[in-house]
Amino acid sequence: MKLSKQKVIFLCAALVAGLLIIQRHSSPHAFKALPFSEKLIQRQITRMKLSRMQQLINTLGIKDGMVILDIGTGSGQYAYQFSKALHGTGKIFATDVNPEMIGYVRAEIKKRKLSNIEPVLVTAQGVDPFYGRNKYDLIFIAHTDIYISDFKNYVRTLKNYLTPGGRFVILRKKAIPAFMLKDITNIKGLLTEIVNERPNSPFYKYLGRLQLPARQALASNNIPQQLKKDLVRCLNNLVFKDIYFYENFLRKDLPKNKEDFFKTDLALTSDEKGYLQEAMSGMDEGNLLDQRGALDPKKKDTRYYFLSKFSVLKINQTLLIQRFRPYLYNGHSPYLPGGEISAETKNIENTFIQTGYTIAGEYDFIPYDLLFIFST
User: Fold this and answer.
1) pTM of the predicted structure, to 2 decimals
2) 70, 236, 292, 314: least buried by Cβ within 10 Å?
3) Domain boundaries of the chain, sorted by first residue
């Protein structure tokens, strides 16, 4: 059975989107947070160091005196930055369902001497009554909306607590887009590279089967449509099918700097190094040379399993694009293909529009986030 291009793209995108949204549909509670751990804290700190924080502050237009609600604050990394941007004025309510996280934030704001942050422990069931006690200029959710069940009613209720002109902000991890034919800007150059790929190359396993038809197509100066489809399919199989592909590039003696974990002579931009570092921080720190335990959903907490799998898919795609970068379209960032608007992105837009919001802005925050701003 032959699948259309649109169906192939949909299936690949659904694979990743399914990993991200399964928590929302499988949990009877509003939140099912990851357990408190030093690993989780370190991951959030790493993401903050790599993020475009000043760009985010500027885009959100944070001004002195604003009241901000930071839902799912975790270790409070965004709350601390918002506090600095407010110059000690206004108020930030940093909420979480995990009492250990709230305890951590309390200790941090005391250590950092931040007087305008109030940590609040809220219920994991629906919209906590606390939220209705205040009016907010900005409601901010970073990377946790996927854990909220009945999200539509959740944002509909919170709309009542925004000030006139207030905004609801979602910071969401980018989905991993599947490659499409339009992402290949020099197909002859790419096929020539594949023809010359050696059998001992990690890429040969998935691309070697194309060597004979590629050689024939180049010789005749005619590239059949079927070969183009097979090429795209092979690129996506390498990223999504073999989640252990990245192991071919791990150093045996891991250095301290995570961006140097990979024994590759492919040049990485600073953004790509950060992207890999962030991805690695989501994996099992116990044994970075063997992620097979973390990637077994039967043996590990499934929430960590999804985090680990999403991370290795990002790493696989980065390595592939680095290998064939001269022949690929860079898309909106140095390492992601062009892709199309994902089903999940469209779902976020529809959820807010259907609950009375309007889209105030959407931004691509390199290296790994999408920012959605909605107003009432």
Assistant:
1) 0.70
2) 292
3) 22-175+342-375, 180-327
